[in-house]
Amino acid sequence: SLLTCLETCQHCSRNRQSFCRLHKQSEQISITMRKQLRTTHQKNRQGTTIVEFAIVAPIFFLVLMASFEFIRINTIRNAANNVAYAMSRQAMVSGADATNIEANNQGILQALGVRNHTITFTPAVIAADTDRVTVEICIPLGDNGWIVPRFTGNRDLVAGSTLFAERYRDN
Question: Which residues pair with 164 in a beta bridge?
Fold first, then answer.
């Protein structure tokens, strides 16, 4: 620096405004050395971006695919709960038929692309004196995955709804 140069160099002490020729040359050499070090360091790092991407990309895409799969599961779960509730409400009406109720509500599950599901009514026959109806929908998650059903395996999603009758009865 200029202060160090002024203290140590006799050439610089005469003209306190500028460096001497010797120190100017050494300063230029150190600047060019820094530039060379910077460029060689950058040249050595060209392959690191590819290596970092090769390590991080599979993990990123695995997390991305898993999130899509769990979004799909959540959508199916919410739809199955809504369909089970709607079916149990329709089943509580006097004279309701389980096959008609099931046919009326299949469209919601079909719109989501749900495959191989089973619907169970308890009791199987809905009579006028039935005081409680339970509808249970079982959906195999392995058959209903979008990307990789390995995340869900052979598990089943079960949604159900139980409603009590509020009917007037003459005794």
Answer: 132
- Give me the sign of the Cα torsion angle 78, 113, 158, 84: positive
134 touches 146 (CB < 8 A): no
Instruction: Provide the 10 A C-beta neighbour count for residue 7.
Output: 9
Which tokens is 11 given? 């050439």
The predicted-structure confidence for 58-72, as pLDDT tens digits, reads as follows 999 989 988 888 888
pTM of the model: 0.64
DSSP string for residues in 97-115: -HHHHHHHHHHHHHHTT--
H runs (alpha helix) in the chain: 2-8, 10-14, 21-44, 48-91, 98-111
